[in-house]
Design a protein that fits this description.
This protein is α/β, with parallel strands linked by helices. 34% of the residues lie in helices and 20% in strands. Helix 6 crosses helix 13. The radius of gyration is 23 Å and the shape is globular.
């Protein structure tokens, strides 16, 4: 399949983590990588490594792309990007790095073909992937977690000794550019409004996610309406579902606080819900998904239990920060859309909600209406704080709201005053603590992206945790 690249030029579009991972495999199959990127610094870095480069302007010249046998794009590049659109028009194939990795694996460039267990969904991908890897480790199966979780698949394939199974987290972007991938098993956890500007709408976004359901076993989250509907369109040879409730035949679910498999055996208890991290419905759903993937390749129930017991939630994913005067502080900065924030809030009874950032066009009306009974108060920051505040005014008018915008307390009349984001977060945490009493949870579940104020969601989470650690008992229940 890859012989057509030998001795030919291949355009690497995007000099990020995935772009860098392409270079050695391209060399190994005898291709010549040429790097392009929208940033001058990125091209300079590639050139310093001795790689040939081309600017996007140079590639826009008539016929400039004809030298390339293939374009391999980073997942963030949109299909309508000029270079990619021109390549398609000129009949040059465009693959994503995941598509290329799939064919590298199929060609046995780095050893026997691996089993791919693919995880996708709007929320819960990383936790499910980590749980899957933990179960595989408990079973003694050489494996690695890779893909959108941080380690490029190509880097995983090149490991020596190599893994037998890949727990692969894939975003909708990666799946869009990977039409050939046929995983041993793949799961669609849930589908909610996200990245609609990139895909052009919810239907196209869901269709990209559905590419996980094309292998031997497809798994869908039955408690999510859109994901459940994908079961009817699944191209997998067998499709099973999971739910947070009593499972029917062919499903995994929960009975009397126990995870039960009725899909891959008549009935097998897999784990106790109390052993799952993170606690709450979202964590249980992720555990059921990881169990389904691993049970599909005959991992025994005792190893599912051991793996889930050993798994601990990663940073900024419903991570417990501190308890102070009976008030818990939880960092779920990774809840970057309303769907994720909903799951996070619903896991707690009484919540002082710290939220806001860039909504990316997502609708928060349904979220606020559904979680309002759990809200003690809301403290909002970021560029779209006014949007969330308006939704709260309409659907939860009795919930106290303090909107800090992107400024500090001095900027209440001008909420978007430029100031250090740590100062804004510190003020937000103090205000939130002032609303809290024993038994409450101060929860960072932004429902929005972070880039209006922070470098990324991890920066936002660290700022929250630092602000929490700076609190004193006198801050609890003391209005600011």
């Amino acid at each position: 399949m890859l012989e057509f690249l030998r001795g030919r030029d291949v355009l690497v579009a995007g000099w990020g983590v995935s772009g860098r991972s392409l270079i050695e495999p391209l060399h190994d199959i005898g291709a010549r990588p040429i790097v392009t990127d929208n940033g001058e610094k990125a091209l300079a870095e590639a050139a310093e490594l001795g790689l040939a480069t081309a600017t996007c302007a140079e590639l826009a010249e008539p016929g400039a792309l004809q030298r390339f046998a293939l374009v391999i794009t980073s997942p963030g590049w949109r299909p309508d990007s000029p270079v990619l659109a021109s390549a398609v028009t000129e009949g040059i194939p465009v693959w994503g790095d995941v598509e290329f990795a799939w064919w590298v694996d199929q060609a046995r460039i780095y050893g026997p073909v691996r089993k791919w267990l693919v995880v996708t969904g709007t929320n819960g991908k990383t936790t499910t992937t980590q749980m899957t890897h933990s179960i595989l480790r408990a079973a003694g199966i050489p494996s690695v977690a890779c893909g959108n979780i941080g380690l490029p698949i190509l880097d995983a394939l090149r490991r020596n000794p190599g893994p037998q199974v890949l727990a692969v987290e894939l975003s909708s972007f990666q799946l869009h550019w990977a039409p050939s991938v046929r995983p041993e098993a793949g799961v669609v956890l849930n589908v909610a409004e996200d990245h609609l500007d990139w895909h052009g709408g919810l239907d196209a976004y869901a269709a990209a996610k559905a590419r996980a359901l094309t292998g031997r076993v497809g798994v869908v989250g039955l408690d999510d309406q859109v994901a459940a509907a994908l079961a009817r369109k699944s191209k997998a040879r067998r499709t099973v579902g999971f739910r947070i409730g009593v499972p029917a035949d062919g499903e995994l679910g929960v009975v009397d606080g126990k995870l039960l498999d009725r899909a891959f055996t008549k009935a097998a208890i897999l784990a106790e819900t109390g052993d799952i991290s993170p606690q709450g419905p979202a964590g249980v759903a992720d555990a059921l998904a990881a169990a389904a993937l691993t049970r599909s390749i005959d991992v025994a129930p005792q190893f599912v239990k051991e793996g889930l017991q050993e798994h601990k939630v990663g940073p900024h994913r419903a991570a417990f920060v501190r308890e102070l005067s009976g008030v818990e502080f939880v960092d779920d900065s990774k809840a970057t859309n309303p769907h994720a924030a909903r799951s996070s809030i619903m896991a707690h009874q009484n919540v002082i909600w710290v939220a806001g950032g860039q909504l990316k066009g997502a609708n928060v009306e349904d979220l606020v209406e559904e979680v309002r009974e759990h809200l003690v108060a809301a403290v909002l920051l970021g560029v779209d704080a006014p949007v969330i505040a308006a939704a709260l005014a309409r659907h939860a008018p009795d919930v106290p709201v303090v909107a800090l915008g992107s400024g500090d307390d001095r900027g209440m009349g001008d909420p978007f005053t430029e100031i250090e984001p740590e100062a804004v977060m510190a003020r937000a945490v103090r205000v939130a603590a002032g609303f809290a009493t024993r038994g409450d949870t101060v929860l960072l579940a932004p429902a929005a992206a972070s880039l209006d104020m922070f470098a990324d969601y991890t920066h936002r989470g660290r700022s929250f945790a630092a602000a929490v650690q700076a609190l004193d008992e006198k801050d609890i229940g003391s209005p600011q």
